[in-house]
Amino acid sequence: MKWPAHVEALQGAVVALGARELGPNAARWDSSAGFEPTFAAKVADWGLFGVSVPEVQGGAGAGLLGAAVVIEEIAAHSGSLAMRLALHEGVAVGFALGLADTSLLARLIGNGGFAGWVGLGRGVTAEQSSDRLRLQGSVCMAPGDGDLVVAGHGTGGPRVGFVAADQLSSGRARAACGLRAVGWTDVVIDADVEHSGNAAVAARLGARLSVLIGAVACGLARAAISQATAYAQVREQFGQSIAQFQAIQWKLANGATERDAAWLLVTDAAGRLDAQRPAANEAAARAQLAAVRMSVSACSEALQVHGGYGYTREFPIERLLRDARACTAIDRGDDDLRAALAAAITARFE
Amino acid sequence: MDLTLSEEHEALVRMVREFAIREVQPKAAAIDRDSRFPSELVARMGELGLMGIEVEVEYGGSGLDPIAYVLAMEEVSVACASTAVIMSVNNSLVCDPLVKFATEAQKQRWLVPLASGLKLGCFMLSEPEAGSDAAAQRTVATPDGDGWVIDGIKNWITNGPQADVGILFTMTDRAAGHRGITAFIIDMHADGVRRGHKDDKLGIRGSHSSQVSFDQHRVGPEQLLGKVGEGFKVAMSTLDCGRIGIAAQALGIARASFEAAAAYACMRKTFGKRVIDHQAMGFLLADMETELEAARLLTLRAAAAKMAGRRHSVESAMAKLYASEAANRLAKAAIQIHGGNGYVTEFPVERFYRDAKITEIYEGTSEIQRLVIAADLLRA
Questions:
Q1: pTM as predicted
Q2: Is B327 on the interface with A (CB under 8 A)?
Q3: Which residues of B touch A2 (CB under 8 A)?
Q4: Does residue A232 sit at the B interface (CB-CB below 8 Å)?
Q5: Homologous superfamily of the B7-120 domain (CATH)
Q6: CA–CA separation, B260 vs B341, rounded Å?
Q7: Residue A196, beta-bridge partner list
Q8: pLDDT for B69-111, tens place per residue?
């Protein structure tokens, strides 16, 4: 697919980075369920923080579309890193972009480490006073141990605020099935925060994250289909490569078609959000819904093409499937997305 | 890839939508019920410039781009898939190969009246024993003086009963396989061309198809399209474009299904609440719209690839495969949402269901599309 020149340039740089730095380390990050302590600084040096931020504000100026392209490419190597970036860029950077005070944005683009997200419906309460937002709650499986953007319900409706890492108490680390290197940790939140936003902000951040979760899912699926295609051409059964069997060809063709369909939904939604076009949030929800569902199916079928080998850790395909499955549990699940879309359809047709 | 529509595209959509809603949709159920070929709508589409959308103005067309073609096809298909496929065949399968392969003299003689809607075209590739396996042609063109004599039978020829002009594929060298296929431009009113009875079909009943047989039909050298032995190239190149049109037709049927289902679900009440407020139905509609949008984007991507002058076999195959299968899923779901009302002809969704099925079959079955896509993946 053709992108604007500056997005293509970014993508090219990430392709090279992926082969050199990400692919060789992805399995290790997965098995150790985390990145090295200095890894976020490396990521900052690589210019991967603030891809969606305008250049005048210190970012790469590629918009959410550029971030989606970069994150999809990274996901083809490491789903965990891609998801950390999706949370950081989609939510934390998105939150900071809406603030008049630019210090938080500078911190997130610089070496402030990965920031995460606790969305609505996680049991956090939010009470707004005149100048501060108080967020309280115990959250199971928050991403990592860095700063968090936290959404909560209060008497005035949903609110969202930025909670610095030193305002959080980390609890038990959770061993997850997939996206393990994100570093899932229980946290206790009891913080007064300065930077906050309303329900519209929470919805905008949710839509940005939907697009980038979709990008992660599409990258995982692309890698899985690519690996299955390569394997099918070298693996022989019944006297011929298994790629010669239509049953295998059908899996590959279906996977590639569904993946392209989902990727178009993701990039279209990113473009709509960048241009602030109407119904962009709905487009983002459809993108996440289609992409995550597709990714689980494509990775599962790709594993099937690998036969028994696909079930072993000798091949990366089992990790891709675990990571794809984990995408279904990040932020809004399948049912939440469909409920939101059904409400939007009702509003248009009633 | 930016698939945002231009102002010119938006204006075209408004024009075609108005035509479709005011003139086509009110007749669609009767056209289907009576299996009536909508001559008056075909004439109107000619007047509106919809019969040669991508053909340059100097050759009688509208001089628009492939995205415009997709948009127009979608709008007409929402109203009546039968009317839409008459338009699609003329645009994609007849005008398009003439634009690409005809000589200047051939364009003046054949393309101008076709693109301006004065004449109607058909595309004659399938045979009783050669559907998806296009290289198994049995219709033969035998050299005769400076021309050829053609004998054989073509099957399922859309617009066959009404067409004035046809693009015909024949075998001129059986030993050469697909390199022995040659294409001709046929005057459908000439001696030696006979049309069979119209097929009695499951859906798209207002679009007539039939056998067309050739009995010692003589063509001159001025009717040769492309070069001798290049007919397979003409056919495949044409189908790459035709598949975009069928994807757009499927997209239109899918949209009609979704819109009918959503409107019904917001109106009909069961167990004291609207159908859409039942989670199973609301979620189903959410899935339907997601598939609809994905089909739209794949179809527009294929059109954009054609517009950029790139080879677009895979994009076209993916668009047709996905959109046609989505149209079938959505039409089926629309009936389910309508319950018993979906099963009667009082409501249009049973027609959408019957019309959707053909999109998985003509201009390359879903299986052929998968072969095209898989071959590309394995070549990469």
A1: 0.96
A2: no
A3: 1, 308
A4: yes
A5: Acyl-CoA dehydrogenase/oxidase, N-terminal domain (1.10.540.10)
A6: 12
A7: A161
A8: 999 999 999 999 999 999 999 999 999 999 999 999 999 999 9
